[in-house]
Amino acid sequence: DEAFSGRDKRPDDLDEAREQARHCKACPLWEPATQTVFGRGPADAPVIFVGEQPGDQEDLAGEPFVGPAGKVFDAALAAAGIDRRQAYVTNAVKHFKFEPRGKRRIHAKPNMGEVKVCRWWLELERELIRPRLIVALGATAAASVLGHSVTIRDTRSRLIDLEEGTKLLVTVHPSYILRLPDAAAKAREQAAFEKDMGMVKEYV
Ligand code: URA
């Protein structure tokens, strides 16, 4: 029901959008989650980073990329000389989806239906910010930005034209690097991620 989804009126600015998104019930993920984790950053940001969905720590803090994946993200930004405060950081899905496992909450991947429903918010963020560059961190983010699924292999590290004046850069999700068991592979992937962030540097 739109009246209960926080989408009864199109917000005019990001503050209004954030406030309305607090009440979003457009998909069932709102209920077990602590809160909506809306995007963070200036309304005139030249770059939007899009992740998949908030994790455990983001759900508790109400801010994107503050947990382990956020540390990998921050390190790559620092290596590329990018100040995170200049960018807008958000997620394709704005509630934490998880499976309870004892006292822990294990990340569960959002399905395409949930991504599609939440895309309303991402499109709004794009329209209100009109960035020069959108960076999709991983395949879920790329699918949400483009409106259809793509592989990282086919799209990575290329500038793809979106709407007037906006380009898309697809790269890996920082959690992918975190999960690599092999130290050499991890170092290699970290370097490749930093190289992609080097492309982003031209836009901030
Ligand atoms: N992973 C994401 O995709 N987004 C976050 O905000 C945190 C972890």
Automatic annotation (TrEMBL):
This is Type-4 uracil-DNA glycosylase. Belongs to the uracil-DNA glycosylase (UDG) superfamily. Type 4 (UDGa) family. The chain holds residues 278 to 481 of 488 of the full protein. Residues 38-198 form the Uracil-DNA glycosylase-like domain.
